[in-house]
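Hey all, sorry for the wall of text incoming. These are the four entities for the joint prediction.
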Amino acid sequence: MRLFLEQGFDATTMEQIARAAGISRRSLFRYFSTKEDIVLGHLVEAGLAVKDALEARAVSEPPWEALRAALEALALDPQYSPERTLGIAKMLYGTPSLRASHFEKQLRWQELLVPNIQLRLGAATGDGPDPRAQAIVACALTCLDVATETWTRSDGEGDLGQLFDQAVAAVRG
Amino acid sequence: MRLFLEQGFDATTMEQIARAAGISRRSLFRYFSTKEDIVLGHLVEAGLAVKDALEARAVSEPPWEALRAALEALALDPQYSPERTLGIAKMLYGTPSLRASHFEKQLRWQELLVPNIQLRLGAATGDGPDPRAQAIVACALTCLDVATETWTRSDGEGDLGQLFDQAVAAVRG
DNA sequence: CCATAATTGTCACTAAGTGTCAATATCGGC
DNA sequence: GCCGATATTGACACTTAGTGACAATTATGG
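and here's what came out:
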């Protein structure tokens, strides 16, 4: 991550990363199957945290309220300092290949969250996922993405939760 | 496209495509800067059609209604037969790298459509895009994506416009 | 201490994408 | 039709991501 932030994502080679980590290039590829995974790998775990938070909410709670509450789980991950988070976010939104992988991660979050939303809608679980649940989860994550991008563009000004609420209000208002 | 549909996206090399097109590999890269562009390139033009359709609607019309009407512009593009469209869609949703690029295309559509939605919200145009307009456009395109994926998974059964309406209803209901 | 299994490194390879420069085609003026 | 300027194309070499195969090294357990 240090090399990425210093030199940019594309300008940093796997060779350099391997050298900095004191391992061979081949071993690096065993830990991270793609370069994008080095940046985005930890986001899969974050998705699991959101899933757990969502499943901890009462099933009687409406989908949007439950999702809003579950996404708060992201805020209390103190893994990175604010300026580091901002640097990573700027790289993420400024690097096409990373942005694309970021969407892929979003898809995996979607798969994790859809079953629970489906429960809240009282839908039958057979015959593939319910499009309504998919639409709700996908749009909630889209709102989170819009909020995060706005937050990033303004250099970390404002509250992310509030930006998310504004996005949701615009969509559902 | 024929080679992609016959062999799959990843299994088809730029060398093969160049040979089939009767040009050199280097020239192929001049027409399409990435392999994904060969599949998704034409979608940028489709975005322009949606933009034009959106701008043709009265500005007094609410955002969601205008977007719903503008997206109809996609349906009347008779460029591809239904089964060909289905084949392409299946490849798109089944190939990770294509799926990612597809999202990138969605971002470009977003940029095209946001200014008009911003007008409808009566927002000031200065100081970057309005997050509310971004959220609305992004979620509309997300609903279109969910609808398209559902349509693809069911082998082209059902009406895409209807699936879109159902997705929107679930989100805004 | 040794046999076995897991991890790592080395080497070779495919394929995407880029830079350079010469060859070839295209086009406007005469 | 001819010619000089201008795009377009091809050939070649190169970097880098990612993969496969196999040897070397390092735990691990009895």
